[in-house]
Amino acid sequence: MQWEPEVPRWRQVYAVMEERIADGTYPPGGRLPSVVDVCGEFGISQVTARKVLTELRRQGLAVMYPGVGTFVSELPQPPGS
């Protein structure tokens, strides 16, 4: 990944993961990569990877089940569907 020096790395990784959720690469209910996997893919520290996953949860895009993993939030169904 080509880093933009003026943007914090966690924000850049967050943007990639957010896009993957939006385009279905990580489908609703699907497991997100672990902290270790995020570190390996993006070459970032565990602290930075945890910050990314925490922000995904804070924004309502993911839920964490302790001891199980972090999963993409289920999208609400529109009325009448």
Report on the structure:
This protein is mostly helical. It has three helices and two strands, in the order αααββ. Helix 1 crosses helix 3 (46-58) and helix 2 packs across helix 3. The longest helix is centred in the first third of the chain and has 14 residues, at 9-22. The protein is globular. It starts with 8 loop residues before the first helix and ends in a 9-residue tail after the last strand.
Summarize this structure as a short list of keywords or feature phrases:
81 residues; 2 strands; mainly alpha; two-stranded antiparallel sheet
- Low-confidence stretches at least 5 residues in length (pLDDT < 50)? none
Structural class: mainly alpha
The strand line-up of the biggest sheet is: 1-2
Terminal CA distance: 39 Å
Discrete helix count: 3
- Strand percentage lies at 5-15%
Q: Assign a percent range to the helix content.
A: 40-55%
Quantity of strands, as a count: 2
- Order of helix and strand elements from N to C terminus: HHHEE
Whole-angstrom Rg: 13 Å
Largest sheet: 2 strands, antiparallel
Average residue pLDDT:
92
Oligomer: single chain
Q: Per the principal axes of the C-alpha atoms, what is the gross shape? A: globular
